[in-house]
Amino acid sequence: MMTTEIFAALAIFALVSSITPGPNNLMLMTSGINFGLRRTAPHMLGVAGGFTVMIILIGLGIMQVIEAVPGSMTFITILSGLYLLYMAWKIATTDTSLARDYAATAKSKPFTFLQAALFQWVNPKAWTMALTAISAYAPKSQGWIGVLMVAAVFGAINLPATGTWAVMGAKMRRFFGDPVRLKTFNIIAAILLVASLYPMVAGLLAK
Q: In the structure, what pLDDT confidence band is assigned to residue 92 with cuts at 50, 70 and 90?
């Protein structure tokens, strides 16, 4: 069984890794600013739910497959990077001409629950978090029970941690009602999203 010390360490790791800047949090804050908290809620829930399922599936077998197939992690990393570049472009080119008319932004749709859940599989930070969590806090001796315990801790912590970014974005929504300010923010957010790929690129070049 998981000791109190290991549980505390896992909870701290889950909080720190979930609340620090990364693709999910940058996109949630951007969505909060562009669409408001209510329309961003499915995105928030999709991140938390999708990542929890990701941990379970990785812990129950995907991790072993990755370790057994040479080059599979490199392929996943490159695919993730290309998709994040696409998402950065989408954010930077979001139509902000009708920023004051919040209802008019409906044609620029936020992530759905399913889209946010599936995004975890092309999110380099999510892969790093999940693989680290399973390796460090769910040893093979604990079997599937250990995997579920790790997933449960992340499930409980990830939603409020990542949701904080969406709330911050929604709070800043009025300030970014000006189209120029919103466009500037979206471009900055896109640049930061691309910058978040640096550790991944550095890791590939180091191999």
A: confident
